[in-house]
Amino acid sequence: MFLTLSTDLAGLDVPASDFGFLLHKNPARPQTIGITGGSAHVFYPEATGERCTAAVLLEIDPIGLVRSGRGKAAEGFTLGQYVNDRPYAASSLLAVALGKLFRTAMNGRCDARPELAARPLPLEIHVPALPCNGGAELAERFFAPLGWTVDARPVPLDPEIPAWGDSRYVDLRLTGVLRLADALNHLYVMLPVLDDAKHYWVGSDEVDKLVKAGEGWLAAHPEKDLISRRYLAHRRYLADAVLERLAEVDGQELAEESAEEGSVSLAVERRTAVAGVLRELGARRIADIGCGEGALAGELLKDPMIGELIATDVSARALISAKRRLRYDDLPDRQRDRLRFLQSSVTYSDERLAGLDAVVLMEVVEHVDPPRLPALARSVFQAAHPAAVVMTTPNSEYNVLFQSLPAGKFRHPDHRFEWTRAEFEEWARGVASTYGYTVEFRPVGAVDPAYGAPTQLALFRTEEEAR
Fold first, then answer.
1. Are residues 55 and 30 in contact, defined by beta-carbon separation less than 8 angstroms?
2. Residue 462, CA distances (Å) to 63, 355, 380 in order
3. How far apart are the C-alpha atoms of 135 and 323, rounded to whole Å?
4. One-letter-per-residue 3-state SS of 51-106
5. What tens digit of pLDDT does each residue of 235-278 get?
């Protein structure tokens, strides 16, 4: 089982051998690690100032694989445990080896050459024998949308007997200009997906692995449904969990990409802005309504001054994902005691949320059908009646500046509407007047002179609190 990664770093004014820094593997010293059923080796067939190639070679012992419990065949084909293609063809074994060998590189980290790790590089990848359940055309469908030029050639069953036709393997070559971290994550996901098989049991922890490896690209991939199903061994409930998390987080950040390359994402700016407002208020008892997968809750949990944090969502599945993302069961007792998860709807009164210092609705209101907005206002501002409400929502005027967002489309497929600045201010002032609050508005994100900021934030405070 064999794979090569090559670069010439053309035009970057650095020697190609610096590729070794990015991979955290010295070109002058071959390295070996143990993996399930064998060993993985990294060595450099070439490492000059002009070109550098890193090779990954897996030596798989089929007997050792069976003894480890990872190579058992389906009932009725016992010999298949020992006589198979795993020593020769790229599979989930190679993906796991890449994850172990290049974990730091996959995270985009390189303390020795940080500027190089952040830059797209000219890369070539060669996988001579890749099981491809779907043929060369499927390899093109999976890799081309990610920016790769794909050369996938079917491997004949026997070159000497053309009449036998092609095997299920392809000789895959990828060329493109991408960050090394992205390239490694593409391989980590796609190798077992194209094979449509894994050598180990697929459980719920694989959801987190896929979401992490697919960050920044999987949500926008036209084949994300098929990729998710295959990666998760066609377990529908796991694939659904991935797609839900992608829709809640990555899909939104895709449409909200920053206008300036390399700047902090709008999702991070939004969380930082909300956390800053809560610190400014001195809020100690807070509810994050519509918490989704818990990104804001995780940010707020870092503040030791917050004594009680309630994360709510109407979706039980979202709450399960949030708990898993925050590793709730592994938190220290003191932190776990500060955090509660509740299933609750923003349009229905919930006495468990009454009398708090602050309630947050971050990117929630636009998911509510307009006829239900009065119910939202009553449940939050009248029934719960916190000292302060922090609300964010997209500014629809800014949408024209997102190049990836088609004209007339909302930023997220589940949005029921998106307000202009004037529309949001009119609604917010009406709610504040009705329920005895004051309201002020703040921009979040880079402010355009004509269109304003991408996110608009409203801070409501009770009239007593505002004095």
1. no
2. 71, 12, 12
3. 39
4. CEEEEEEEEECHHHHHHCCCCCCCCCCHHHHCCCCCCCCCCHHHHHHHHHHCHHHH
5. 888 887 787 777 655 444 444 444 343 345 788 889 999 999 99
